[in-house]
C-alpha cells in the first residue's frame, strides 16, 4: 500500500511517540505489535493507530499485527531528515541546559549545534558538546551553519525579539518554551509550549478526580 505524508502536527507527534514506544519492544526481542497494544501505551484509540499506520502504508493483520522493525523504519523515513538536522538554542539558563543535556545523549537526527545567551559567563565555551555564542553572533552563526530549527528558552520579555531574529536569520521552525506566544510569518512553523499552562491544566483535572 503506498504511503501518504502526514500533514497534521498531531499526526507527526503521534508517530514520534509510537517510535519511542516501539524501540524498547524491539530491544526486548518482540517483533510484532497489535494496534490495541500500541494504542493503550500511547493513550489513543486502536482505530487512530490503524489510521496512522495506513498513512505509512501498513494495513496490519488481525492475527499477526504489525512488524515492529518495519514500522520503525517507515516512521523514520517519514519524520526524520535524511541527515542530521541542526538546531539553534536561545537561552542557556536552567531550562536551556536541561534541553542541551537531553539532546547530548544522541540517538536523534536532531542536534543542537549552537546556543546563544546574553550573559558573558555562559558564552565563548562548549557546553555538553554544543558551542555557546553571544547573542550578537546569532544571525551570522545561523546563516553560516544553515540552521533552520530554533528553540526559544529565554524569559518572556525576550521571546518575540528572539523569534524575530531567528526568522530573519533563516529559521523556519521554532519550538517556543517562553511563557508567551510568539508571532511569526505564515512561512514559519511554531509550537508554543507553556509549561505553566500545561501544569495548571493537569492540576485542574487532578482536582476533578480527587476522591
Structural description of this entry:
There is one protein chain. This protein has eight helices and nine strands. The chain is α/β, with parallel strands linked by helices and 211 residues long. It has two domains: 9-77, Arc Repressor Mutant, subunit A (Orthogonal Bundle), CATH 1.10.10.10; 85-197, NAD(P)-binding Rossmann-like Domain (Rossmann fold, 3-Layer(aba) Sandwich), CATH 3.40.50. The radius of gyration is 20 Å and the shape is globular. The chain starts with 8 loop residues before the first helix and ends with a helix. The mean pLDDT is 91.
Topology, pairings included?
Elements: H1 9-27, E1 32-33, H2 35-42, H3 46-55, E2 66-67, H4 68-79, E3 85-90, H5 94-103, E4 110-117, E5 125-127, E6 130-134, H6 138-145, E7 149-152, H7 156-169, E8 173-176, E9 189-192, H8 195-208
Parallel strand pairs: 3-4, 3-7, 4-6, 7-8, 8-9
Antiparallel strand pairs: 1-2, 5-6
CATH topology of the largest domain: Rossmann fold
| Overall average residue pLDDT | 91
Text of the CATH class of the largest domain: Alpha Beta
Number of domains: 2
CATH superfamily of the largest domain: NAD(P)-binding Rossmann-like Domain
Low-confidence stretches: none
Count the beta strands: 9
> What is the oligomeric state here?
single chain
Overall SS class: alpha/beta
Strand order of the largest sheet: 5-6-4-3-7-8-9
CATH architecture of the largest domain: 3-Layer(aba) Sandwich
Helix-strand sequence = HEHHEHEHEEEHEHEEH
